[in-house]
Amino acid sequence: MKLETNDLTFSYNSHPIFDDINFKIDSRITALIGPNAAGKSTLLKCIAGTLDPKGIILIDGTNVEDMSRKDLVNIRSYLPQESETNASLTVFETLLLGLVHSLSWKVGQEDIEVVSNVMKYMGIEDLALKNINKLSGGQKQMVFITQSLIRDPKLLLLDEPTNGLDLQHQLEFFELIKKITMERGTTTIIALHDLNLAARYADNIVVMTKGEIYATGSPSSVLTQETIRDVYGINAHVSIDNDGIPWIKPLNSITNRYFSSNSNSNLFIE
Ligand SMILES: Nc1ncnc2c1ncn2[C@@H]1O[C@H](COP(=O)(O)OP(=O)(O)OP(=O)(O)O)[C@@H](O)[C@H]1O
Ligand SMILES: [Mg+2]
């Protein structure tokens, strides 16, 4: 599946967040990286259809404006940065809700099987009957990730999906996304802050800063000392391992906001 944006522009009220964003990506994993407030979540929300930008979004060459709501619901899936629910539902019921657009008024055996299979695939069957609000932060995140995969989307938009996950779950999650992306030809965009995970798992990196695309390309072409200095304001050591994957070791901040020479060093001491 191909995703293309033409002159995508978005403002919150009259506050512009980005102007004329253009990129083309295909059935691979794209990591969307950049500092806080760069506009990553806003861009994902525009592609997901939860915000209404100016400009054009094309999926396999068709303008999303010309696609039916039903088709779009089946094609794209979006996991927000902060996923929460107030509903008092079990994990099984929460996952069933992920199918809501394809469910008729009655839940069928097939729907129950889909949910059971996906839970098994994700290794969370033991949580099935637990109340979602009584899970740990990481367990909840695993449920929301599972919900975003349940309809086998062609376009997967994940906003900091590994937040709150332990190291094992983070690696397992990226292995799973790699497998899904390869086996099903999914186009996957993941906003994330961990540059080493981006380097290891993404085929393509889009660097966003201050509402602009600073660079796009392979991890080794994009994740350089220069990019890291310009975009994050830090010095880093970047080495390339035997597989050609960059390894980033942050060294120091170029302009430390908290310990600059004119900051008030008596902040906490009267
Ligand atoms: N609902 C909103 N209303 C007004 N301004 C918003 C809203 N959401 C985000 N913004 C502003 O838009 C800008 C981009 O925010 P966004 O959440 O897209 O950044 P981000 O790159 O995802 O950052 P982070 O890495 O911290 O998640 C920020 O300046 C933010 O304050
Ligand atoms: Mg964000």
Count up the helices.
Answer: 9
Rg over C-alpha atoms, rounded to the nearest angstrom: 20 Å
Low-confidence stretches: none
Mean pLDDT: 90
Describe the structure.
With 270 residues, the chain is an alpha/beta fold. The chain has a single domain (3-253), classed as 3-Layer(aba) Sandwich (Rossmann fold). It is built from 9 helices and 12 strands. The chain has helices at residues 40-48, 69-75, 91-97, 109-122, 137-149, 167-184, 195-201, 219-222, 225-232; strands spanning 3-12, 15-25, 29-33, 54-59, 62-63, 76-79, 155-159, 187-191, 204-209, 212-217, 234-240, 246-253. It has a 6-stranded mixed β-sheet with strand order 6-7-8-3-9-10, sandwiched between helices. A hairpin with a 5-residue loop joins strand 11 and strand 12 (246-253). Helix 3 packs parallel to helix 5 (137-149). The longest helix has 18 residues, at 167-184. The N and C termini lie far apart (60 Å). Magnesium ion is lined by residues 40-41, 81, 159, 191.
Short description:
This protein is α/β, with parallel strands linked by helices and 270 residues long. It is 32% helix and 28% strand.
